[in-house]
Amino acid sequence: MTGEEIAQRIRLVARRFFAELGYDGTDLKTIADAVGLSMAEVQSASGGKRELYLRVFRDLVDEQAEFVAPAVAEFTQDLDGVIRLIDRYVFYNMENRELLALWVQRWLSDAADFKEVERIFWAPPAEQLADVMRPALREDVDVYPAIWMIVWSTYGFLTGGMLVEGAARLPPDSPEGRRRFLAQIHRYLATLVP
């Protein structure tokens, strides 16, 4: 196995632990044990826990940006364009929940000494999304809270599903739950567009 293959394997394991346990709750020994390497090998291949955490964040943010890019490139300044763009964001997170989980860990004050995470990893994609969406939205819409409503709704749905009639729970992986969630997101988006 090449050095890059080892580093990639370490990052894949680390992303799962950082998403589930947070940065503060994960140590290199846990990662090393899961990968089947010594701590020294993990340290050498990853640059250490801090560098590994930042690289995991970078990888996930880049994956999401790549997935959303076609909707950005084909964006139209109307409700259909907004829906296509947000659907890409939601679809990515439905299939790749680790990035949202890392953000929730941050919201719970995980890795609080990392002051640069939001500036490096949240601001650029949020600013791009805001810049793309803004011309399609009503003038009175504050684009950043509008984006956060989608982020929070998506994470809430993906972590707990939704309660519906008779207190029945639709899990986030159920076709009915996904259909109803997306329909409601689309109704919300319709309120933002003239």
TrEMBL record:
Protein name: AcrR family transcriptional regulator
InterPro entries xrefs: Homeodomain-like_sf, Tet_transcr_reg_TetR-rel_C_sf
Superkingdom as given in the UniProt entry: Bacteria
